[in-house]
Design brief:
The complex is a heterodimer of chains A (about 190) and B (about 400). With about 190 residues, chain A is α/β, with parallel strands linked by helices. Helices cover about 35% and strands about 20% of the residues of chain A. Chain A is globular, with a radius of gyration of 15 Å. The longest helix of chain B has 30 residues, at about 220-245. Chain B is an alpha/beta fold and about 400 residues long. A six-stranded mixed β-sheet of chain B has the order 9-11-10-13-14-15, sandwiched between helices. Classes of the chains: A alpha/beta (about 190), B alpha/beta (about 400). The interface between A and B is medium-sized, with 20 and 27 residues. β2 (about 35-40) of chain A pairs antiparallel with β8 of chain B.
Chain lengths: ~190, ~400
């Protein structure tokens, strides 16, 4: 397991946390890594808490369990902080990244004394500015890449551009906004 | 050149179907296998393949239509999971006894109840007596490779049996992993054209499929099916050898992982084998204990003698079942492996563990505890009983 980065995503059904995990697997794959991106399936409904996972490694990954001691946790919906212990098992030399307008100090009471790094990014604000809609998963994906350092910013943005061109082949007008959302997340992440 | 890709297990199977371009695919959606016919329908709509997709109103009809197409002489496939396969039950036996080389992509999911959509082998294990060949996969790579190999196995004249290509629901079916894809022309060459010797649409040969056969023929029919299962062993290995020549990836009835000098072994099926491999590596690197793993790939025909031989020198073995059968002996894999060991006079202590039912997760540390238990069993010669549980709440 040495050299494997493990990431756990917390979101709500419909917010794209699973899609973000699969996109992260996608871009990491393109940089030559071994990857896993998988959701944990519970009740399939909008708004229900969902968890998704990534493993990213330089060597083959055989483990097929969920992730209990992640290096990084990404919280796509801050309302989950009231009901889910998002830092459970999170490594202290890792980090939690939270989509919020609040400051780190305002959130600490939800983090059960977590001693590692806490990053905040206003993914809703970024998405609203860049796309005119609240799609928090793109900015959170960029934030996860920025914090985990699984690849550098330029490499990530290049790969994402080609992914978006493929994914949005039939509605190319949304590509620029999505790219802007990614770049803003890199610029506006707070430690 | 092989193509480096990242795909989910469902995408991998659908991609193999695209490469093979079977004649007919009747299918009915059920989680977590739904994506397979969905992706294939896309391939057909985009003109990539000319498979005849039949929309049916149930899985009973899906298997019935697959049987009809296969009997007519077509290369016919379908996909399902869990209760979907339960609804095919009657037809599974019809497909096997009519010796139809159907390939079924089964995405393993628990049977109700309680209603559960997650990985568990109760669907395919329940069908282990239906006369189908069963091949299981640890990873997306393996389910793709197994799917391609299923055709020359099923369609071999000495076999002519349907094949179930199984993968764990969600864990591999919906998990994206790295995969090496074989080039289209090589896949086409590997599976070849299907030219059945006997088929209903042959005007020159009159043929009855699925006739009434009372006591004067039924028993011989079953013996014939058994012979086909026996013949399948050689054919499965031949297909694996040919596949290895094409891809460099090696397959057999089972994979032996660090078994050469192993004192303690786990026998397991499916995606959890990969998790167990990480435990084997960790224990060998840290505690320096001789632990190993046997991952069953082919459950029908069951490689009884080969398994007994692989376990001949171990001190203790844990046989892990991801489905319940409520037998006094434990689960289905436990019963098969124990029978093989008894027949071969194996001296190893054996325990059968239930794990992962209804998608209950199993971790590397769970497997480390399994190996600790085996060491204790070998020392004390006291087994916990015929079966026990991993990950069951008290």
């Amino acid at each position: 397991m040495n050299g494997t980065i493990e990431i756990r995503w917390h979101g709500r059904g419909g917010q794209g946390a699973k899609t973000a995990a699969l996109l992260l697997a996608d871009v990491a794959f393109k940089t030559g890594k071994y990857v896993q991106g998988f959701p944990e399936y519970g009740p399939e409904r909008m708004g229900a808490p969902i968890t998704a996972y990534n493993r990213i490694s330089d060597s083959e990954i055989t483990v097929h369990s969920n992730i209990y001691e992640p290096d990084y946790v990404v919280v796509v919906d801050e309302s989950l902080l009231d009901s889910i212990d998002v830092t459970k098992g999170l490594k202290e030399d890792g980090a939690v990244i939270i989509n919020t307008e609040h400051t780190k100090d305002e959130l600490m009471r939800h983090l059960n004394g977590y001693k590692g790094n806490v990053y905040t990014v206003d993914a809703r604000g970024i998405s609203t500015r860049a796309l005119g809609k609240n799609y928090p998963n793109s900015p959170m994906l960029a934030a996860a890449v920025a914090v985990s350092g699984v690849m550098d910013e330029d490499e990530f943005l290049t790969e994402m551009k080609s992914s978006f061109e493929h994914k949005f082949a039939k509605k190319p007008e949304v590509i620029d906004g999505n790219m802007r959302a990614l770049k803003l997340a890199f610029d506006e992440i707070n430690k | 050149m092989a193509v480096r890709e990242r795909l989910s297990g469902n995408e991998a199977v659908a991609y193999a179907i695209k490469q093979i371009n079977p004649d007919v695919m009747p299918a009915f959606p059920i989680t977590p296998s739904t994506e397979i016919p969905q992706y294939v329908a896309n391939y057909i709509a985009n003109g990539d393949i000319d498979t005849e997709f039949i929309h049916v109103e149930s899985e009973h009809s899906a298997m019935s239509a697959t049987i009809g197409a296969s009997a007519a002489g077509a290369r016919a496939v379908t996909a399902t999971s869990s209760c979907g396969m339960a609804l095919m039950w009657e037809e599974l036996y019809v497909a096997a006894s009519n010796r139809l080389p159907i390939v079924l992509a089964l995405v393993n999911r628990a049977l109700s109840g309680p209603i559960n959509i997650n990985a568990d082998h109760s669907d395919s294990m329940g069908a282990r007596d239906s006369g189908w060949i069963q091949i299981y996969a640890e990873s997306n790579q393996e389910v793709y490779d197994n799917y391609i190999q299923a055709f020359p196995i099923a369609e071999n004249e000495a076999v002519h049996l349907p094949v179930m290509v199984c993968q764990d629901g969600f864990i591999t079916s919906h998990g994206v992993e790295n995969i090496m894809l074989v080039e289209d022309d090589k896949v086409k060459e590997f599976v070849g054209e299907y030219t059945p010797k006997h088929y209903l649409l042959n005007a020159d040969e009159k043929l009855a499929v699925g006739p009434y056969a009372v006591s004067n023929y039924y028993m011989e029919t079953k013996r014939g099916q058994r012979q086909a299962m026996i013949n399948a062993k050689k054919v499965i290995l031949e297909a694996a050898e040919k596949f290895e020549k094409m891809t460099g990836r090696r397959y057999g009835f089972f994979e032996e992982y660090k078994m050469d000098d192993a004192d303690y072994a786990v026998v397991i099926i499916g995606s959890a084998a990969g998790t167990c491999k990480a435990a084997v590596d960790h224990i060998r690197n840290t505690a320096k204990k001789k632990v190993g793993l046997i991952k069953i790939r082919v459950f029908r025909p069951f490689p009884e003698e080969e398994i007994a031989c692989a376990l001949a020198n171990v001190k203790a073995v844990a046989i892990m079942d991801r489905s319940e059968m409520f037998a006094a002996s434990g689960g289905p894999l436990g019963a098969e492996v124990r029978a093989a060991m008894y027949q071969a006079h194996c001296k190893a202590e054996a325990v059968n563990y239930f794990y992962g039912l209804g998608g209950r997760d199993i971790t590397v540390s769970d497997f480390e505890r399994v190996y600790e238990n085996l060491e204790k069993m070998a020392e004390t010669h006291i087994a916990v009983g015929m079966y026990d549980y991993i990950g069951l709440r008290g």
